[in-house]
Structures are given as structure tokens and as C-alpha cells.
Amino acid sequence: MPSIYDFEVTGARGEVVPLDRYRDRVLLVVNTASFCAYTPQYAELVELHKALGPLGLSVLAFPCNQFGAQEPGSAEEISTFCRVAYDVTFPVFARVDVNGPNAHPLYAFLTSARRGIFGTRSIKWNFTKFLADRDGQVVARFAPRIRPRALEPAIRKLLGPEAAL
């Protein structure tokens, strides 16, 4: 059975990043944008990363410019914005398409594994979130309006007993 670990992505500096490097971690994969009404969710993603990263969570951000052209910058501009505005220390990868014929294979996998409202595969907006377990299986999909802090119980459950509240 394929898993999230079977994919490679491009880092913000153009390097190939095998997702296998996150093996045995719980992953929260988010398509992001710098100029979106949901952009303040970065702050909660940072909180989750800081609190639960030591217990096995990795937040992975994938900038996307497919929704209202809200992520028009270069990889360097995006990285600088994330670092300066939100003190982001989790990986922010190169910009990707999440829908359509040029959708990144990772997103084709994610949207096939967990469909959205009414069974649709397409992502409707920035800050759609996918949660994968330590085996690399996608276990949940969350709409952009669902705030990252609301995901904490589900994340802690996947992390195991050491992460119990």
C-alpha cells in the first residue's frame, strides 16, 4: 500500500527532499499562502510544531498560488515571510499546485486518500490540512476553516500515550 513516504518534494532552495526522512513521525501537511485570510493559522501551526514536534509531529507547509493568487512570491520571499512574520521553523517547501493537471503527485495521493466534502478530491482553498499517521497513511482531512489548534486531540492520539493531555 503506498504511503506518504513514497514521495519526493522540492525544498525551498530547489533540493529534492524524500518524505521518507519523516518516517515514523505524525505529519500535518498544509497548503499555505502568505496573503490569505487564513494566513494567521501559521501562528497555530508554529505552536503545534513547538509543543508536539519533540513528541513526533512534523508540520510540512506547501505554498500554493492556485487560490486567488495569494502566494505570488519567490521561494525566498515566501521563506522570509514565514520566518519573519510567524517565526516558522518547520519546513516550508517549494510552491506546488494542489489541483488540476499539474498537481504535485503528493497532493494527488493526499486527495485520493481523503476526499473532501461531498466526496470531492479537489482542494477548495488555502490551509486545507491532511493528517498522516506514523505509518505514512493519511487518516484525516480538515477544511481551511478548521483551526490548527482544533487538531491537537487527533494529533495527540496518533502520537501515542506519551502525548496524552
Name the features.
single chain; 165 residues; alpha+beta; Glutaredoxin; two-stranded antiparallel sheet; 18% strand; peroxidase activity; oxidoreductase
Helix content: 10-25%
Low-confidence stretches: none
What is the molecular shape? Answer: globular
**Total DSSP helices:** 4
Strand count, sense and barrel status of the largest sheet are: 4 strands, mixed
Structure write-up:
Pfam families: GSHPx. Keywords: Oxidoreductase, Peroxidase. This protein has 165 residues and is an alpha+beta fold. The protein has one domain: Glutaredoxin, CATH 3.40.30.10. Helices cover 25% and strands 18% of the residues. It is built from 4 helices and 6 strands. The chain has a 4-stranded mixed beta sheet with strand order 4-3-5-6. Strands 1-2 form a two-stranded antiparallel sheet. A hairpin with a 5-residue loop joins strand 1 and strand 2. The longest helix has 12 residues. It is globular, with a radius of gyration of 15 Å. The mean pLDDT is 94.
Q: Topology, please?
A:
Layout: E1 8-10, E2 16-18, E3 26-32, H1 41-52, E4 57-63, H2 75-86, H3 105-113, E5 129-132, E6 138-142, H4 152-159
Parallel strand pairs: 3-4
Antiparallel strand pairs: 1-2, 3-5, 5-6
Pfam families: GSHPx (PF00255)
GO biological process, one term: cellular response to oxidative stress
Protein name: Glutathione peroxidase
